[in-house]
Amino acid sequence: MGCDISLFAEGFISKYPNEDKKWINIDHWYREDEWADIMVSEYKGFNYTDLIDGNRDYGLFYLLAGVRGSEDEKSYPPIAKTKGLPKQMDTLIKKYILDGIILEDLEGQNGEFHDASYLTLKELKDSDYARIKRLKGWVIEEEYIEAIEILNKGEQWQLSYVDIKCEDIFHEGMILKEWDGYINMNLIHMIERMEQLKKERHIEKDEEIRIVFWFDN
Fold first, then answer.
1. What is the C-alpha separation between 67 and 185, in angstroms, rounded?
2. Are 58 and 90 members of one domain?
3. DSSP H or E segment with residue 106
4. 22-25/4-13 β-pairing
5. Structural domain count of the chain
6. Which of these, 12, 67, 107, 144, could form a disulfide with 61 (CB 3.0-4.6 Å)?
7. What confidence tens digit (pLDDT) does each residue in 105-120 have?
8. pLDDT tens digits, residue range 37-49?
9. How many CB atoms are closer than 10 A to CB 145?
10. Contact present, 63 and 184 (Cβ < 8 Å)
């Protein structure tokens, strides 16, 4: 059975200098007055930002929440354990959830919707998973040679491999290698897009922009 992610970005911002900040969605819905708690059409001026290009990336799902993976088979742990939904969150995201999801399901791991959580830009960056890491595993030789050539030029590239800890995974015809590379390019691209949203919305701190997400089977 396949697994997908629902993912939203929120900023902790205020409309006026002396007004209290609150978490508001900054990547899906356009509000003409900034705070209108109604869903509006994407045709009314909002340029939707897809932080992960709609990718069903199980490697990313594992890094965000330990979904579709196990620490027994991965050399690097997930960024954080799942936290459930935040107590304070954007009203439109709440409405989106309540329109079709039972909240109790999101808090668990056995329902159709599961493993809800949230991570700030600071948490994502502090994980160091957007930087070059020492990797070891089984690779296809031709792909390895190509990847090393690209990485040696200073370019970012993700090489597909079977982690060294996955001893039971079929890897016939592959060779065991160790190299410095990137764990997940979709994570890197997501962080870059969050940085751009932070700049556009004049958000001051990495702790004041976050992703809220959950998974469905």
1. 17
2. yes
3. helix 103-107
4. antiparallel
5. 2
6. 67
7. 555 555 567 789 999 9
8. 555 544 444 456 7
9. 11
10. yes
